[in-house]
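Both lines are given unchanged directly below:

***
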Amino acid sequence: MPSGTVFIVDDDPAVRESVAALAEIRGVKVRAFPSAEAFLSAFDPRESGCLVTDIRMEPGMSGIQLQSTLRQRGIDIPVIVISAYANVSNAVQAMHEGAVTLLEKGCSSEQLWSAISTGLERDEANRQKRRNHVEMLSRFRELTAEEVHVMERIVEGALNKVIARDMGLSLRTVEGRRASVLKKVGAASVPELVRQYVEIETVYGRRPSELLLEPQP
């Protein structure tokens, strides 16, 4: 059974109740809100789960606007959009904002639960990825400044003897630091070190050496 909370945002009480019943009967926690604004004021991004929202709510923010606001805030909770006005334009907008899917109101309970299950599973996968990235960076933070400088040259593809010459070090010193870098970051090989290095750079938007050598608060 997927874990997490199903957050329901819909201005129709009957819809909120029906979606809530669908989740609760399967043992999944539910929190329901009558508007996007009410959800945003109460939601804690540390809470795991997925969001089910109507595409059109009056008055106030639409489901698409809610998706956009969440994305602008860096919140990547999976979103299932439901609508009585489903069309190609709405579907394109919803998917562009990262929706799991767009369903028409009146869809079967099996379709809706399948989408919710996918959303909950996706959220857990995303959270596990973030935990993995934090753990990966923490391993890199075990490197000394000297090891970071050698790592940079290794990732660039420089040979040990070239690194030794350029940095004014003995070959044995470079070999020792190279071995220490691989051991500390948990990489069995240089290609694995490069993969982790690139992944950190992609996730954090900065070279690992910049993150590692900046003063810590």
About this structure: DSSP finds ten helices and five strands in the chain. The mean pLDDT is 89.
